[in-house]
Automatic annotation (TrEMBL):
Entries under SUPFAM superfamilies matching the protein: Acid phosphatase/Vanadium-dependent haloperoxidase
GO biological process terms, semicolon-separated: phospholipid dephosphorylation; phospholipid metabolic process
Subcellular location: Membrane
Pfam family, one: PAP2
Organism of derivation: Dekkera bruxellensis
Name of the protein in its database record: Phosphatidic acid phosphatase type 2/haloperoxidase domain-containing protein
Gene Ontology cellular component annotations, sorted alphabetically: membrane
Domain of life: Eukaryota
Domain Phosphatidic acid phosphatase type 2/haloperoxidase: start-end pairs: 105-269
PANTHER family associated with the record: LIPID PHOSPHATE PHOSPHATASE (PTHR10165), RE23632P (PTHR10165:SF35)
Family under the similarity heading: Belongs to the PA-phosphatase related phosphoesterase family.
Keywords of the record: Membrane, Transmembrane, Transmembrane helix
Membrane topology term: Multi-pass membrane protein
């Protein structure tokens, strides 16, 4: 079990990351406030539009609680669990290093989640795209058969039978939040596992694959453990596609949300960890954990 008690200058180490933690918390707070207080753009609509006439699903395949458990809690717990196992088998002398990896993993993961949430919510509010089940949320007081063909209406004709919250949420179809969080969480996990387990690292750091093409088999080689990368991808796809099955989003919403989550998680991971294709893929880009103890920054 990790313990900071034997580590020297732990306070000095943590002090360097306080600004980043403050920024992470601020991003989460701003995103939360935006979701609760900001009104989405109220786009006008046509009652005969089939793209917003789908039924409202009362039982989602992945509701908000399941999303947070699946795309946030599970990936984070898996990363911490693997880190603790590596520490258990790596020796007590590496405690500062593994504590550093866990700290950077936590910071980077939640920073990615915060930025992803902010970008997704901002676009939802500005785009104001109608959900596929919007008309059921709206409950128009005008019968669609009596409405003039092609006439555009606004929200004033809505009786809001499902309540104000679900009605307002009906204007926030694009991008898909479930898709963005699913791809952000699981893609970060995928990159992290690839780096920490050296799934795509060269077998020998001294071999130049260009200068020594005959020894390329010692540089990169396929092994069955690399198939583990398919698991997070499959999980992210399952959550994303379920949003179409529940008539919450169309494929444009899902595609944009997936791209945002993938892009944000990849960008943030690359700011904190070394390339998954390098020999030192399990290393962070910072070695300031050495202030906690005196030893060289060696590969895990």
């Amino acid at each position: 079990m990790l313990s900071f008690s034997p580590l020297e200058n732990c306070g000095e180490y943590l002090k360097a990351y306080i600004p980043t933690w403050i920024v992470t918390g601020a991003i989460f707070a701003i995103s939360f406030i935006m979701e609760l207080t900001c009104e989405p753009f109220k786009r006008h609509f046509v009652l005969s539009d089939p793209s917003i006439s789908y039924p409202f699903s009362y039982h989602e395949r992945f509701n908000d609680t399941n999303l947070w458990l699946s795309a946030v809690i599970v990936p984070y717990v898996v990363m911490i669990w693997i880190s603790l196992l590596k520490h258990l088998f790596g020796g007590e002398q590496n405690t500062p290093k593994y504590a550093h990896v866990i700290h950077i993993t936590t910071l980077a993961f939640f920073l990615a989640m915060g930025i992803n949430g902010f970008v997704t919510e901002f676009l939802k509010l500005r785009i104001g795209k109608l959900r596929p089940d919007f008309l059921e949320r709206c409950g128009p007081t005008i019968d669609s058969s009596a409405a003039l063909i092609g006439k555009v209406y606004n929200e004033t004709i809505c009786s809001k039978p499902l309540g104000e919250i679900l009605f307002k949420d009906g204007f926030k179809s694009c991008p898909s939040g479930h898709s963005s969080f699913a791809w952000c969480g699981f893609n970060f996990l995928n990159l992290w596992i690839s780096g920490q387990l050296h799934l795509h690292s060269p077998l020998d750091q001294d071999i130049d694959p260009i200068a020594n093409p005959s020894q390329n088999s010692k540089y990169h080689r396929f092994h069955l453990l690399q198939l583990v990368n398919l698991v997070p991808i499959g999980c992210a796809l399952q959550i994303s596609l379920s949003r179409s099955q529940d008539y919450r989003h169309d494929f444009i919403d899902i595609s944009l949300g997936s791209f945002i989550g993938f892009a944000v998680s990849t960008f943030i991971y690359c700011q904190f960890f070394r390339s998954i294709f390098g020999y030192h893929s399990s290393e962070t880009k910072f070695s300031d954990y050495q202030v906690m103890n005196s030893y060289n920054d060696i590969p895990l």
